[in-house]
Amino acid sequence: MPESEFTRKIRWKKLAWVPQNTKGSLDPRYSINDHFEELFQIHNVPDALHNTAELLDSVGLSSSIRWSIPDRLSGGEIQRSCIALALALSPSLLILDEPTSALDPSLKGQIIALLGTLKTQRDASYLFITHDIHQAISLCEEFIVLYAGHIMEQGSRESVFNNPIHPYTKKLLECVSFNIASAPPKYITGEPPRLGDLPPGCPFWPRCEKADAECKASLPLLEDKGSGHYAACFKS
After folding, report:
1. If you ran DSSP here, which 8-state letter would residue 17 be given?
2. Residue 104 — pLDDT band, cuts 50, 70, 90?
3. Residues 6+ apart with CB under 8 A from 126
4. What is the tens place of the pLDDT at every residue in 169-188?
5. CB environment 185-209: b (16+ within 10 A), e (fewer)
6. Which CATH architecture fits 3-139?
7. Are 115 and 99 in contact (CB under 8 A)?
């Protein structure tokens, strides 16, 4: 599809994106209102000022900030502005790339709560990319666990969290403390592989206690282990 057609038919209308570095994704010379106005002009949406005020209100921002440039806003305000911008044309899928990684801990919970509310209100689907398992559990219904660019495990939140199958998923969950009174988290020994120089076979085998000759020689395929719970592992 040509770029011009993709912009006109898909981008922002059906598929939108909240980047990891939200401040870096905004033009520092443009006010927040300018960003919205440009989007609405491209897609021939009338009454840009009213729509912008409504969108900013939906993410908990005063409409007065629309006249500010990004440098005059806090990290939380920029994050909320980018979420409002992504939702401006009511896309059916919103890609969230580590949307809270640049925020301090006090704001992370607020943004996740906001995303949960907006997801319900707008009947949208999220593709939520994160290293924060707590956030994923609170927001996501389906999990895909990746290691070195390969899917290790896939299934519902309940099945993956309560009954992990792949050795990597099990160790990943052991790294996270869900109970302050519980034992301290464990850590995965070894180092992640270089993506440009992956070992043959399963990419996790150098760090896996169950690995044998088959794991080192062949890449396991993703298989349904029951009830739509998939894993790519010879030993599970």
Report:
1. E
2. confident
3. 93, 94, 95, 96, 115, 119, 139, 140
4. 999 998 887 665 667 778 89
5. eeeeeeeebeeeeeeebbbbbbbbe
6. 3-Layer(aba) Sandwich (3.40)
7. yes
Nearest Cα to 33, choosing from 41, 24, 43? 41
User: How far, in Å, CA of 231 to CA of 185, rounded?
Assistant: 24
How many other C-beta atoms lie within 10 A of the C-beta of residue 103? Answer: 18
Residue 106 has pLDDT above 90, yes or no: no
149 SS3 class: coil
R_g of the chain computed on alpha carbons: 21
- pLDDT tens, position by position, 71-103: 999 988 999 999 999 999 999 999 999 988 878
Determine the average pLDDT of the residues in 215-230.
95
**Domains in the chain: boundaries:** 3-139, 142-231
Identify whether the C-beta of residue 233 lies closer than 8 Å to the C-beta of residue 165.
Answer: yes
